[in-house]
Amino acid sequence: MKANKSTSSDSGVTTNRGRLIATNASLRRLIVSAYGVQDYQVEGPDWLGSERFDISATFPEAIPKGEKYEAALQIMMQKMLADRFKLEVHREQKTRPVYGLTAGKSGVKFKEAPASDCDSHSRNNNGTHFVGTCVSMDGFAEFLARRRRDLPLDLPVLDMTGLQGFYNLKLDWVPESKGSGERKDDVPGVRASASGVTLLVALEEQLGLRLETRKAPIDILVVDDAQRVPSEN
Question: Structure pTM?
Answer without folding.
Answer: 0.72
